[in-house]
């Protein structure tokens, strides 16, 4: 474990708790965010320690390199290790003997608690999100002011990395995302949080928006209800929320640059983050993998039929769909396109 750097975060003033679930940043909150994000960037550029699994960093046992960008809630290995650690803990509390190759497995936080206080690293350091910082709260992260402040800032400002995409006749589909049949998408994040956006088919159909409106932070959204408003010129359409939950962040960049969502629908074009208490049940109503491909292919075929019926195949190019169908063929009608594909 690396020695702590006393200079790290010396200029970072933490938020002050003013009441239950209420936090007040001091007058230099903008400076706080800048210091934090610079520290995150330096840590990423340094790449210290690679992507070593937290369980291995803690010294519990050797594990493969992390493949989930330290989003442990998505990791099968983390789930299995947690089950083993929980079982061992229960057996110890009952005074029973533990045998087998996993007899020494404990929770990674419990393993780190064996270290002297001055050498206990913050979990965000272990995830290579910040330079070295000591844990000062005995790994009770839910009660940690820094953890809440960091998580809020990092989750909103972290850039979604480019993902592998499938190309279905000109329509991009990201692998690993969940899809709603109303052409919104869901990307899983930590702690029952998801990031939401509009898919490439909808943007290819309607073209670049002038404005996109979403509920304010703290508002509730309901799955299958029209919660997102896309506006182009004098036309508008409401798109359904893919999940039910509470809005925790919105992409403020899109307020002045809504067309960026058209160019980067699955990365910089995200619309909002939502905390979803019933995430498992919500995901059962969404599409994933081959189901998405089949659905998009059917909708593309239907769109070509409408074009050939009402106009002519001007939007086709070598079997691929051109973007901004409405802009190229306004005679198809905004109402017909939105009623057929987005309702």
Would you kindly provide a written description of the structure presented here, covering whatever features stand out?
With 343 residues, this protein is of the alpha+beta class. The protein folds into 2 domains: 111 residues, no CATH class; 181 residues, OB fold (Dihydrolipoamide Acetyltransferase, E2P). The protein contains 12 helices and 15 strands. The strands form 5 sheets. A 6-stranded antiparallel beta sheet has the order 5-6-7-13-12-9. Strands 8-10-11 form a 3-stranded antiparallel beta sheet, with no helix packed on it. It has a two-stranded antiparallel sheet with strand order 1-2.
| Pattern of helices and strands | EEHHHHHHEEEEEHEEEEEHEHHEEHH
Number of domains: 2
Strands, count: 15
For the record, what CATH class of the largest domain applies?
A: Mainly Beta
In oligomeric terms, what are we looking at? single chain
Main sheet attributes: strand count, strand direction, barrel closure = 6 strands, antiparallel
Number of helices, counting only DSSP H or I runs of 4 residues or more: 12
General shape? elongated
